[in-house]
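Internal ticket - ligand job 274, 2-acetamido-2-deoxy-beta-D-glucopyranose:
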Amino acid sequence: MAVWDKNSLWGLLFLLAGAVGQTVIYPFTSTCAVRGSTVTLPCTFTPLKSFKVNQTEVPLKIVRVLWCQNHRYCYTNTPSVYDSNSANINPRYQYLGDMKTNCTLQIRDVQQGDNATFRFRMEADHREGHFTNKTGVTVRVDDGSKMRIISSSDDETLSRGETVTLLCASGCTFHQLEVTWFKDNHALSDTGPSLHLSPLTAEDSGSYTCALKANMETVSEPYSLQVEAGNLDELTVIRLVLFSAHTLLIVTVASIIIKRTCCLQHRSRSAAES
Ligand SMILES: *[C@@H]1O[C@H](CO)[C@@H](O)[C@H](O)[C@H]1NC(C)=O
Ligand SMILES: *[C@@H]1O[C@H](CO)[C@@H](O)[C@H](O)[C@H]1NC(C)=O
Ligand SMILES: *[C@@H]1O[C@H](CO)[C@@H](O)[C@H](O)[C@H]1NC(C)=O
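stdout (structure tokens):
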């Protein structure tokens, strides 16, 4: 039943789309990207299936897809950032879509020049099937903003054996975030947006910062973490018990020896006197 409902819904959507003609939908018409990061511009399209010439339906087929910057119609001759007909494309612009319904574009290593409006254009084997949605997606490249460290714990002072996760975040949304973490200004090997510290030891104390790997200017304010010898972990307890037992043994043995030496001396002395 659920499957039938879903199918009929899709069918209805298809009919509606067909009735309206070709469409290009940008789910987000604006986005923000930190320089050096990767941003994805989601996009779906519905091409015209056919057109009429003298009462006959002529089928249409999409033969070319383009993405361009700041041009309202993205005509064939305007410079494009992606063109399915061209082999000479900047590899920073990756077309994740296809020639049928998906027109998603991904921009890697975002540059200041990407602060622009991007539009998708489809071209069919007849010009009736050509279409650009001039709304486009406006990308705002954020150069000045710094990364921020968000801790999973409200306290900056934590106890040994506890767990904490530090997240490297920014006011801009982006994908496939590659960051560099620093502890006391030394780079750590972790490259993911979250740094998981567990179980905490005294050596984890220090000043943490993070930055986008491709843009060190985004380096965050330092986050200071203090690990206190609060909760004793199992190993520490065992060590403590062993240490106490050891000390007790030494003291006992020592006192026995001292007692014997003293009394032996005492006895030998009294033997000499008599
Ligand atoms: C153009 O894109 C906007 C934003 O996604 C959408 O609301 C609109 O329906 C689209 N128009 C056409 C004709 O595809
Ligand atoms: C379009 O393709 C991209 C990359 O393969 C995928 O992530 C996305 O979900 C697709 N979008 C739709 C609406 O199918
Ligand atoms: C980026 O584009 C916006 C318009 O979308 C504009 O207001 C802003 O000045 C641009 N910033 C830079 C640094 O070019």
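Auto-summary: The pocket of 2-acetamido-2-deoxy-beta-D-glucopyranose (ligand 2) is lined by residues 44, 96-97, 102, 104 (CB under 6 Å). The longest helix spans residues 234-273.
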